[in-house]
Specification:
Elements: H1 5-28, H2 32-45, H3 50-90, E1 93-95, E2 105-108, H4 109-113, E3 119-125, E4 130-138, E5 143-150, E6 153-156, E7 167-172, E8 175-182, H5 190-196, E9 202-208, E10 212-216, H6 218-261
Antiparallel strand pairs: 1-2, 2-3, 3-4, 4-8, 5-6, 5-9, 7-8, 9-10
Helix pairs in contact: 1-2, 1-3, 2-3, 3-6, 5-6
Length: 262
């Protein structure tokens, strides 16, 4: 006998219901990935099963809610640990005067307190960005890049041109000062190099109209190395806080969608 149209419709409906039941079963077991695949299959294979697809949509919202809630709970558990670790490191840093900039900026106390001289320094923003600073105090050298060497290996920055806003020169009490700031796009591997070789003798070479070399004091090298680590920890803290905020907002959106569906 040839199956009637009605029996065909029932068969299709039964298959869709079977998929929904399986998806629900996986959902109750916490197997969210499998449940989502099955829900997607319902929408793909049975586009005319409007009632079942609505149930599938509701199930998907519940899955997303549970996944997001699980993520929020995880972030809630690690945020205090991340903050505690950051706080323990932050005691070694000074919050700089940021009146003219948008981001809070920190500097290691040893770098903040070091005597004005030709040296390297760095700052860490609240986003975890490390900015390397090359300072030249003495004869005008108009340097635009820095090269560091240790144990017959080296790293260098890209050039920050004389006319660049991050290449500043001025005279104070007869001394020619040059402050060249290398952000993450210009500093190359120099901060990481200093972090790796902080216990070694590091030769710094200023590259410009007049080259000049000097040895980086070990306390300065170690403060820059610590700052590189502090920058990573600051970036991690910011990332966790952002993920927590985004997940919390997502929970609110899912709740709203569930109310609309019901």
């Amino acid at each position: 006998a040839i199956p009637s149209y009605a029996s065909f419709v029932i068969s299709v409906s039964n298959k869709a219901q079977n998929l929904l039941d399986k998806a629900t079963s996986h959902y109750t077991k916490g197997e969210y990935h499998t449940a989502k695949i099955l829900v997607d299959s319902i929408h793909t294979q049975f586009p005319r099963e409007i009632a079942l697809r609505k149930q599938a949509r509701i199930l998907m919202f519940n899955i997303e809610y549970q996944e997001t809630m699980r993520n929020v709970m995880y972030l809630d558990s690690i945020m205090p640990l991340i903050k505690q670790q950051w706080d323990s490191m932050a005691v070694d840093y000074v919050l700089l005067d940021t009146t003219l900039v948008e981001k809070k900026t920190y500097q290691h106390k040893k770098l903040y307190q070091q005597a004005p001289t030709t040296t390297l320094s760095c700052e860490v923003t609240e986003l975890g960005e490390l900015n390397l600073i090359s300072i030249n105090a003495a004869n005008a050298r108009n340097h635009v890049a820095v090269k560091v060497c240790a144990d017959d290996v080296f790293a260098d920055t890209q050039e920050v041109g004389i006319n660049n806003v991050y290449n500043n020169r001025f005279t104070d009490l007869g001394i020619q000062w040059e402050y060249v700031t290398f952000d993450k796009t210009k500093q190359g591997e120099v901060p990481g190099f200093i972090e790796l070789y902080a216990d070694k003798t590091i030769l710094v070479r200023l590259m410009g109209e007049k080259s000049y070399s000097y040895y980086l004091p070990k306390p300065t090298a170690k403060a820059i190395a610590a700052s590189a680590n502090f920058a990573r920890q600051t970036a991690l803290r910011k990332q966790i806080e952002t993920e927590h905020r985004n997940s919390t907002e997502k929970l609110s959106r899912i709740k709203k969608k569930l109310v609309e569906e019901l």
